[in-house]
Design a protein that fits this description.
The complex is a heterodimer of chains A (159) and B (759). Chain A is an alpha+beta fold. Chain A is 34% helix and 16% strand. Chain A has 2 domains: 76 residues, Ubiquitin-like (UB roll) (Roll); 71 residues, DNA polymerase, domain 1 (Orthogonal Bundle), CATH 1.10.150.120. Helix content of chain B is 28%, strand content 23%. The chains are: A alpha+beta (159), B alpha+beta (759).
Chain lengths: 159, 759
């Protein structure tokens, strides 16, 4: 099958690639662009480990085709920190011991950042339901929820 | 873990009595930055020049003879570089190597739905998957069985007539492959003394470890017989040994590097796709990445065993248990190895019993080869035993924690599984649970409270650690146990404690198989205990050399120098008067004062302290829908000594959450056709954030005499009590005893209806 030329923006960098029409955005990110921060945990949109944003909309990149990124702005975990400065969510995840193995962490950070951009002051229940599409098998979510709530509080103070 | 690896904790008394400066603090983990920025490299995150992608062809049948494999169409597809079948692996392997090979790539028969029968490597993942579909396999379908009780019954299809070992009595079905019996006292006499006898049968379904990172590796084999493997694993020396055997190569010629690992929970203590990737790479003469898809993980990597268990307990009116008996039938898939002896041995291990007897049966069926899952065998046994104890408490109107306290194992108790306990924390966890505000908090209507206790052996295992000092006074530590939940931080804390230098000045690396001595797998809750002990001893060996250098500099005897707070200091009346000599001043000149300073430790430590936990759960059951909500959860567990308390809490919380999933939702569902029905996370539903409450973690510290700082492993015990604690809470809330897992809404409704029908 002949490949399709795609022009897109990834973490603010304009990017071009050729992809098989069947290839997912996740495969393109990982296998072609060496952006391996997004993980494949299921390939069926159930685990959220591949979460990225496309034009600020939270998506599972395993459910988006590479060709769909044409003309869009994609943001991945690699683009969360600004240079050496970590995003408050990233700092709070380390401080609160909110990761164990860390494989779900990139997706959860992207999802949590997307939540706080829409709702800077979420309740615990709102955080839990927003992150219900991001599976973590290690932590029981306790410390993740605390880290997100604490980051939200810090960001509100700074705002 | 072989059974005989467990020894009573009679290891050398190691416990130190000293103030700790670094141990017990909660610094940031050294790999934190990489893991929040996406830089950490997991199993599927490596790419090599010229790399191919692999895909595995799997049996759609639960049990079938492989008549013919025709790969010609696959081989003809543009981009396909290699196809392998069983013919590409070593022959004549026996015992566990033989079973592992048979599981990794089927020989004459496919033994379960998803069993690998061939594999392909191609220039892209899409081509590899297309090619896998073009491999034509002709099967002769055979009758199958997937249920443990049916697999033992007369007339059940035989998986392999040669499996059963000498422990199995005459007359059993050939699918019964191993037998275990243990205990002490006279159970019949004990039951005769009881005021109440409760006897019941409990069943659990298989659950998967559910690690979020599917098994993945990158293999590179050369025509010179040398190989490299990058893999997410709990134990790369195990991988090295098994892959070398299965490929028919020399162990030392295969170098295995452990990537970051995205969860394991026991499921990554063995090999699945690794030997296949190596065989493909050998055939194609190119590197091959082989990452499993989630459906392959669920169908063909090892879940836990399923169980069917009979429990009988005799109790006096005051709550004293007079006798306890259990039979544990475990189905572990198509190969021997279901952890029925661990079920049997852990079942009554929390209690001080005069009369106890336990029997285990290992049964094979047409399911994937089970793998370890966090305290393998123990959670299901605790579910059955602790449910029966709860039933007895309810019938006699006794408080469940008081009854457990009355019967609790304590220092010196002869354990149900043989040895006499050393210093243990069972009573301490019960006391802490009783004192916790949760236990006395009022319940809302529709809610029930459950408590349960659990036990796990913990493990030592072969361990090597190497530590070296740099000229600037910093330290690098090489350990061989993959870091699953922050163990690099714990190792650095222990090294800092011995050396007296800041945590931040220590870098801990997971060494590959070519750069460190053999290490047992990260399993058995052994890492903080065994690699920790080895790190401490390696650091002490370095300290000894530091003291020697100071003694030489000062011109005094070596034994007149001691190490204090990161400095050599003169010790004793005749040592002389010298200013403390800091570590960095000694290392700055080490090249000219005797050479590099390092420390090593290699041993198989045997003082892993056993571990106990007690959980309190409040559950709310909707009588109309049968849905259960966990409204409050408290874990109390003995850590011996928490090196990094936040990571210990994380282990407790994670174990409880996995237990909640196993208790309420998770199960392997096989159809009449023997095929797994729920092969994606949507259908195999693990707990999500909105399912759970906060999980209160209480760390009890009863020091383990077998570790310098008192460490007991904490990883596994946390999943032992939850199935029972939740079953007790749900049963108390619903007003009917639940005896089968998972306690999903249909099952709870059925129990409620049965009870209404009986009334």
């Amino acid at each position: 099958m002949s490949k399709v030329h795609v022009t897109t923006s990834i973490n603010g960098d304009s990017t071009e690639y050729l992809c098989d029409p069947r290839e997912t955005l996740l495969d393109v990110l990982r296998d072609q662009l060496n952006l391996t921060g997004a993980k494949e945990g299921c390939g069926t949109g159930d685990c959220g480990a591949c979460s990225v944003t496309m034009d600020d909309r939270l998506v599972c990149s395993c459910l988006v085709l590479g060709v769909e990124a044409e003309g869009k702005e994609i943001k991945t975990v690699e683009g969360i920190a600004e240079g050496e400065t970590l995003h408050p969510l990233q700092r709070k995840f380390i401080e609160h011991a909110a990761l164990q193995c860390g494989v779900c962490t990139p997706g959860i950070l992207i999802a949590a950042k997307s939540l706080l951009e829409k709702n800077p002051d979420p309740t615990e229940t709102e955080v839990r339901y927003w992150l219900a599409g991001n599976l973590c098998r290690c932590t029981g979510y306790d410390k993740i929820i605390r880290a997100v709530m604490d980051a939200a509080a810090e960001m509100r103070e700074a705002a | 873990m072989a059974l005989d690896e467990y020894k009573p904790q009679s290891g050398d008394a190691e416990l130190e009595n000293k103030e700790l400066k670094y141990v017990g603090t909660t610094p940031d983990r050294p790999d934190g930055l990489d893991k929040v920025t996406g830089k950490a490299r997991f199993g599927a995150d490596l790419s090599l020049p010229g790399m191919l992608f692999g895909a595995i062809v799997r049996s759609p049948h639960a049990h079938a003879r492989i008549v013919k494999i025709d790969a010609s169409k696959a081989e003809a597809l543009d981009g396909v570089k290699a196809v392998v079948t069983r013919a590409d692996f070593a022959t004549g392997l026996e015992g566990e190597y033989g079973f592992v090979l048979e599981n990794v790539m089927a020989g004459e028969k496919a033994l379960y739905d998803g069993h690998a029968v061939a594999a392909v490597a191609a220039t892209s993942a899409l081509i590899a998957r297309d090619a896998a579909k073009l491999v034509e396999v002709e099967y002769e379908v055979l009758p199958h069985v997937t249920d443990v009780d049916k697999a033992m019954a007369e007339g059940a299809p035989v998986i392999n007539a040669a499996y059963a070992d000498a422990s199995v009595p005459e007359g059993m079905h050939p699918n019964v492959v191993r037998h275990h019996e243990s205990g002490h006292g006279d159970v019949e006499a004990g039951f005769a003394e009881a005021d109440l006898i409760v006897e019941d049968t409990y069943v659990t379904e298989a659950a998967h470890q559910g690690y979020i990172e599917p098994n993945a590796c990158v293999a590179q084999m050369g025509s010179d017989g040398k190989g490299e493997l990058w893999v997410c694993t709990q134990g790369h020396w195990y991988v090295q040994k098994h892959c070398a055997a299965l490929l028919g190569m020399e162990t030392a010629q295969l170098r295995v590097t452990a990537s970051e690992i995205g969860g394991g929970f026991g499921g990554k203590t063995t090999v699945f796709q690794e030997p296949v990737a190596l065989a493909l790479s050998r055939k194609a003469s190119r590197p091959v990445k082989l990452a499993l898809q989630r459906s392959e993980v669920l169908r063909a990597t090892g879940p836990t065993a399923s169980a069917s268990m009979d429990i009988k307990i005799g109790m006096k009116k005051d709550g004293t248990i007079t006798a306890a008996e259990g039979t544990f039938r475990l189905q572990g898939g198509a190969f021997p190895g279901a952890p029925m002896e661990f079920s049997a041995m852990c079942a009554f291990a929390c209690y001080d019993l005069a009369n106890v007897r336990q029997v285990g049966w290992d049964v094979v069926s047409n399911r994937p080869k089970q793998a370890a899952y966090r305290a393998p065998g123990a959670p299901m046994a605790a579910f059955a035993v602790e449910s029966v104890i709860d039933t007895a408490c309810n019938k006699l109107g006794l408080d469940p924690l008081e009854v457990r306290l009355k019967n609790a194992a304590h220092d010196g108790t002869k354990a149900s599984w043989g040895p006499r306990y050393d210093q243990i924390g069972m009573v301490a966890t019960l006391e802490a649970a009783k004192a916790h505000p949760h236990y006395s908090a009022p319940l809302e209507p529709g809610q029930g409270r459950g408590v349960a206790s659990g036990f796990w052996f913990n493990h030592g295992g072969e361990t090597s650690v190497s530590l070296s000092l740099s000229e600037d006074g910093t330290c690098q530590v090489s350990v061989g146990t993959p870091d699953i939940g922050g163990s690099r931080a714990s190792m650095a804390l222990m090294a800092a404690e011995v050396l007296g230098i800041p945590y931040e000045n220590i870098r801990v690396t997971i060494a590959d198989t070519a750069t460190l001595g053999y290490n047992d797998v990260s399993h058995g809750s052994r890492v903080t205990y065994a690699s920790g002990l080895a790190t401490i001893k390696a650091a002490r060996a370095a300290v000894e050399k530091l003291c020697q250098r100071a003694a030489a500099k000062w011109g005094i005897e070596e034994d007149a120098v001691k190490w204090e707070d990161g400095c050599a200091v003169p010790s004793g009346a005749n040592a002389g008067d010298f200013d403390p000599l800091p570590l960095a001043e000694i290392t700055a000149t080490m090249g000219s004062t005797g050479g590099p300073i390092s420390g090593h430790f290699e041993a198989t430590p045997e003082g892993a302290g056993v571990s106990f936990g007690t959980h309190i759960v409040d559950a709310e059951v909707d009588q109309e829908t049968g849905a259960t909500k966990i409204v409050r959860y408290t874990v109390v567990q003995d850590a011996g000594k928490a090196i990094h308390p936040a990571y210990v809490e994380g282990q407790y919380q994670g174990g409880a959450a996995q237990g909640i999933g196993w208790a309420l939702n998770e199960e392997y569902v096989y159809g009449e056709d023997g095929r797994l029905q729920n092969t994606v996370f949507l259908d195999y539903r693990i707990p999500v954030a909105s399912d759970l409450p906060m999980i209160d973690a209480v760390i009890v510290e009863v020091p383990n005499p077998g570790h310098p700082y008192g460490v007991r492993g904490v990883g596994e015990t946390g999943i032992v009590p939850p199935l029972a604690a939740i079953a007790n809470a749900v049963s108390n809330a619903a007003g009917v005893r639940l005896k089968s897992l998972p306690m999903n809404p249909p099952k709870i409704l059925e129990a409620l209806e049965d009870q209404a029908g009986d009334a």
